[in-house]
Amino acid sequence: MNSPLALLGGEPVIRQPGQHFSWPPITEQSKKAVVEQLGENISIYDRSGVVAELEDALANYFGVKHAVSMSSGTAALHAAYAACLIEPGDEVIVPAYTFFATATPLLHLGAIPVLADCDETGNISVTEVASKITPNTVAIVATHMWGIPANLPALRALANEHHLILLEDGSHAHGASLDGQKVGSFGQAAAFSMNGPKPLSAGEGGFVLTSDDDTYFRLLLFAHYNKRCRSEIPSSHTLHRFAVTGMGLKFRIHPLAAAFALDQLTHLDEYLAGRAQVAALLCNELKEVAGISVPQLPSKHQAAWYGLPLTYVPDELGGITVERFHKALLAEGLSEVDRPDSTCPLNQLPLFQCPAALFTHQREFARLRYQPGGFPVAELVHHNTLKLPVWHREEDVPLARAYVRGIQKVVEHHHDLKG
Ligand SMILES: Cc1ncc(COP(=O)(O)O)c(C=O)c1O
């Protein structure tokens, strides 16, 4: 620790080259699952084979009646919104701080994403949501940022009070829970991404959870036309006559991705337990470090630790900017410390500042003009977030500890960063 900062010519804390974190774990068993699927079927039109196995396993894992696999999280969100009958002009309250795909499918449905600021946890603020409800509001969406559960009981109470639909974007939070109830099971539907680095990965893929039969049939109609709709929507149901075409979109998961995800799912709890241990270690070691604030969860909440969002507090380090602090960490060899980029307050993105320029047929969008500065908490949280990877294996603990040492070193020498 006595060495000068690496940014100023000293020895870096970590010299280990290459990537320090990779996800998902690809085992011999995962490879075998994919190769076996290649020999079995690489195009599945109905709910059979590995698609049925994956959906049964997901429904069972999350404690819901139905899981519908999709080609991506974006597709899952799109299908979930359509299946909940969100229509042109409807207002849907979404987090200002989330990945943009939480909100973009609403634009495609002609609905109005009403952004609500977050609280200091980075998750949507219940007070802000309450203040955005109007007679045109139909739904509230929560994202569990970086795997930390949003305040679903309070959001559900608010939704019930105002007769609104509660929806979840669980893309960061597979397996996270509140008082033993898994996120994804709190509202009418929940959409998840299974894209590359997600806690449950298919490489590319997604799924929607619901316990409501009609929502399930509409998910199929929206995204899984023909054979699947014909065999699953009862002939007595009013929607059955549309089964051949559905709504004309095909958002099926690839069977190879389904096989990979199914294998990953069998290890999810073990991976999450490993991550929980490493997250606890990191938080414990960093909680007294000046300039760094660690997430604090209520005791009965379990996070999925998609990442560990640390909040940088410049006032505790003589006003050194987060940009300079981050640069110093990278120079110490902490190459995985990330300042999230595309996951940002949506009002900072041109699409949300001027959606009418791209959605030229949507007259209603002329009034959507989000601007920088509109969501001060989200903007501050985002600006000061330094995200660490959360490893899951015992053998990665020394690396996690080296990251702690690197942060401690930069904090101890922060005076040298002035000027
Ligand atoms: C919160 C959130 N929602 C939705 C998505 C979109 O998922 P996909 O990339 O699978 O379409 C992502 C992906 O990063 C995400 O982080």
UniProtKB/TrEMBL annotation:
Name of the protein in its database record: DegT/DnrJ/EryC1/StrS family aminotransferase
CDD domains per the UniProt record, alphabetical: AHBA_syn
Molecular function via GO: transaminase activity
A Pfam cross-reference name: DegT_DnrJ_EryC1
Organism: Lentzea indica
InterPro entries attached to this UniProt entry: DegT/StrS_aminotransferase, PyrdxlP-dep_Trfase, PyrdxlP-dep_Trfase_major, PyrdxlP-dep_Trfase_small
Keyword RNA-binding: no
Family label: Belongs to the DegT/DnrJ/EryC1 family.
Keyword field: Aminotransferase, Pyridoxal phosphate, Transferase
The keyword Transferase is assigned to this record: yes
PANTHER family: DTDP-4-AMINO-4,6-DIDEOXYGALACTOSE TRANSAMINASE (PTHR30244:SF34), TRANSAMINASE (PTHR30244)
Cofactors named for this entry: pyridoxal 5'-phosphate
